[in-house]
Amino acid sequence: MANAAAKKAAAARGAAANTYFPIIAGVNLFYLFLRIIYCKTSLTVFHGSMSLILVGLSCFAYKGILEDHAHSAGSGAVGKGEALAGGLSLDLLGLTVLVQFGSLASDYFYFLLALIPIAGGYKLYKTFKGDSAASAGFMNESNEVESTNNNKFIDPDKADARKQKRAERRRQKWN
């Protein structure tokens, strides 16, 4: 079964790559074209280094989008209220594209890059305070265990009894 999940994740990663690579490559090439053609007279070392940083950020976001697609496909977490696959990497890509094309008009758009560490700090805060799904069992102070069936909370004693019954059935099956 683990091999099937890996195949599903690889297929999702490939499908996401086929979707996002042409878009991200085209946006970056178009940005670099505009940066060289229209801002040729004001091209400085600062603008060149910021252009490289922005292209690097878009590549980082692309890699994150692929990994998130693979993770969501491998876990089978597809539901009505699920978040869009790509998550924060899509937000990073959107911010990067906004800064890329905004910086062609004004250098003040580079200040929007300060949102990246702020968003990262907020994500860490949510992780350790328990407001996100990633920390549901990590920082939970109650003694309830989350079941995989419809996200209902059950008593840990019932969960242990259920596990022991299942183990006993498996042992009887092999004897």
Topology:
Layout: H1 2-38, H2 45-75, H3 87-102, H4 115-129, E1 145-146, E2 153-154, H5 156-174
Antiparallel strand pairs: 1-2
Kindly describe this structure.
The chain is mainly alpha-helical and 175 residues long. The chain folds into two domains: 2-139, no CATH class; 142-175. Helices cover 67% and strands 2% of the residues. The chain is built from five helices and two strands; from the N terminus they run ααααββα. It has a two-stranded antiparallel sheet. A hairpin with a 6-residue loop joins strand 1 (145-146) and strand 2 (153-154). Helix 1 (2-38) packs antiparallel against helix 2 (45-75) and helix 2 runs antiparallel to helix 3 (87-102). It is elongated, with a radius of gyration of 23 Å. Mean pLDDT is 80; it is low at 135-144.
Brief sketch in words of this structure:
The chain crosses the membrane at residues 20-38, 44-62, 108-125. The chain is mostly helical.
